Amino acid sequence: MSSLFYVIRKQFMNIFRGLAQKPLALVGYILIGVMMVFVAVVTLIMPSGLVRKVDNEIFRAGVAATACIALYLGLRQGIEKGSTYFRFADVNLVFTAPFKPSQVLLYGFIKHIGTSLFIVFFMIFQIPNIKNNFALTDYGVPVILLAVLLYSVISPILGMVVYSVSSRSNERRVLARRLLDITAVLVVLFFVLAIAMTGSFTGAFVSFFGSEAVAYIPIIGQIVTIASAAVYGIDLMFYVSIAVLLVLIGLFVAIIYNANLEYYEDVLSATDELESRIKAKREGRDASLRKGEARKVKGGFSSRGAKAIFEKHMLEYRKVSFLLFFDSTTVLIVLTGVGTKFLMLDGFSSIFFTLFLSAYLLFFFIVQGRWPLELEKPYIFLVPESNGKKLFYATLTENLKNLLDGTLLFTVAYFIYGTSIPVILLCIVNYTLYGAVYIYADIVSRRLFGSIHSRVMLIFVKMFVSLFVVIPGVVIMLIVQGITGNELYSAFSIAVWNLFAAMCLFLASKGIFNNIETT
Question: In terms of domains, do 321 and 275 share one?
Fold first, then answer.
């Protein structure tokens, strides 16, 4: 064990030394830390139930449903490739060290604790939404974060235990996967049956996932009990659940440490797949790495200069999209955006909730889109065109996709909300402009900060710059809405600001092609 802790200690020292050699990265992390502390303080002092006070039973049922889905996905990953907690750097360092296989797994668990803490930090940003809709107790926020932390710690350990058992033979792996899938199908069927019996989705959801029987399901029951203390208060079962989870964590770690495992071949294969997924995600390609039949499309390059970049992007979209620009991303945004209508009470339902939620999701798709891949290739810098023209055509496909996605989303929203056509048209324009703001804010971030120390920090920097640009438009909209009470004027005010912001960011982004080192 001494050699294992020596390697971990050295890695931490190398991280701090690396930050000391990169002052910009260190300043960025300090700013992120300050922002998180600020959000945490605001979250703790803000009152609960500002927007509405949803029944506590819905909170309990929601936690149970979320825990069930997360546990299923975690176990499924554990059965198939429980060793995906490693990167190639870990393989080169740890696999050549004098460690037992069980210690290698333990190393993966210790590294995953950092991911668990990041999940907790990300959860801090979601707490205001919870406090706006539920009446939390004074200690509700720490209780929720504790539940998230415990689950994020125990989930990968459980996945490792399942992997250590199922990886001994292919038959065991197939059997474990089938048992897990059958259990999931039965849960869905019983839930559908509950909906049919009650005639109400909300009633069935509360009665099924909020049942007292859920408290007796291992891990899920303990997580639900701990999180529910945020609205019901702390009782004896709260401490019992914490103790049970800590005992399970210790038990699982002991099982992993004492298991006689020989799994290096599977680890190398899974690590290679993980690295391929990460690379594909960074390049804006399909991270699922599905090996489907390549779609043959007819077309060629009839344009010259910067327009050829646009034609290239169009051909790439035709190969992977269902129709035009419509793909799985479109389906996800439309379903999530329209689903906002059914999550809000009638008195608070507004098409602006759909606009802002879909714009929030759009940010994460934009920062991992296709166009940044062009900046990693030299030919775009050598095209004999103006910087503005190259930037326009390099990002045109993304803007067109956002326009068509927004058209589909708010066409459906028109029939659900029953608002006026001018408001719908302005919402489509706003959605497209939000995408443009994110794209050009991304480029401005690259010009300001250059190469970023880590991808996590890169996303935070882009989010900070985008929020700095977008928030004034939201404030203006709230002021206009408060004065006029008219949705059309409010949507128009956002459109004016977003158009102004997108144009300014576009002009500030043109210089990205003057210096190839900034990419």
Answer: no
Same domain as 312, residue 348: yes
φ/ψ bin of 219: left (φ > 0), alpha (ψ from -120 to 50), beta (otherwise): left
Tens of pLDDT along 279-306? 666 555 555 555 555 566 666 666 677 7
Query: What number of other Cβ atoms are within 10 A of residue 82's Cβ?
Result: 27
134-160 confidence digits (pLDDT tens): 888 888 888 988 898 888 888 877 877
Q: What's the one-letter identity of residue 368?
A: Q
In the numeric block, the tokens 């797994």 are attached to: 105
- Backbone angles phi and psi of 307, in degrees to 5: -65, -25
End-to-end Cα spacing for the chain: 42
Least confidently predicted of 121-135, 165-179, 252-266: 252-266
User: Is residue 19 situated within a structural domain?
Assistant: no
Contact 286, 320 (CB under 8 A): yes
- Helix (H) or strand (E) holding 390, with range, is helix 387-417
Whole-model pTM over 0.70: no
Q: How many residues does the chain have?
A: 519
Q: How many domains does the chain have?
A: 2
Host domain of residue 255: 46-281
C-beta of residue 427 within 8 angstroms of C-beta of residue 413: yes
| Strand, helix or coil for residue 97 | coil
Say what percent of the chain tops pLDDT 90. 9
Same domain, 266 and 322: no
Rounded to 10 degrees, the C-alpha dihedral 152/340/124/457 comes to 80
Separation of alpha carbons 316 and 331, rounded Å? 19
CB contact set of 444 (below 8 Å; sequence gap of 6+): 465, 505, 508, 509
